[in-house]
UniProtKB/TrEMBL annotation:
UniProt GO BP: dopaminergic neuron differentiation; neuron projection development
Organism the protein comes from: Neogobius melanostomus (round goby)
Subcellular location: Secreted
Keyword set, alphabetical order: Disulfide bond, Secreted, Signal
Phylogenetic classification of the source organism: Eukaryota, Metazoa, Chordata, Craniata, Vertebrata
Stated name of the protein: Mesencephalic astrocyte-derived neurotrophic factor
Amino acid sequence: MSGLSVALALALFPSNSDALKEGECDVCVSFLGKFYESLKENDMKFNSADIEKALVKSCKDAKGKDNRFCYYIGATSDAATKMINEVSKPLSYHAPVERICEKLKKKDSQICELKYDKQLDLSTVDLKKLKVKDLKKILEEWGESCKGCAEKSDFIRKIEELMPMYAPAAAKARTEL
């Protein structure tokens, strides 16, 4: 075996101590997994330059923790670092996203510290028992705001009004209760 193929094998198959643990790097794995699937669905050419362009475009629409991940890898306009090639190169030869996240973790441990917030089940949760902060967060995730809302009941009314558009299954389940 040549030295290059040994180096490639070691790069693609790191030792078990480097392997991600269950639930670790969930934002990285989830975001890159969805991104990789979108590349395949759109019959994208798998070369680094095209993948980088698509990644930057995808990151423009990213919100919350996905946007923070994009910032960490340098795929946002305000990012201080540029590690985008650490994603685009391995994706160009179809490396598993878990392996890419393992390598990113070595470069910047913050990437794997990102965790998605626990999602509320809007079909069963009692909105009246939530804090105003949580009600605002629901609206924020939907890209909405509640102008003129002063009372908790105002936020609840706004969420119930918008629910059929943003969470149709939850809205339907709530009407059946």
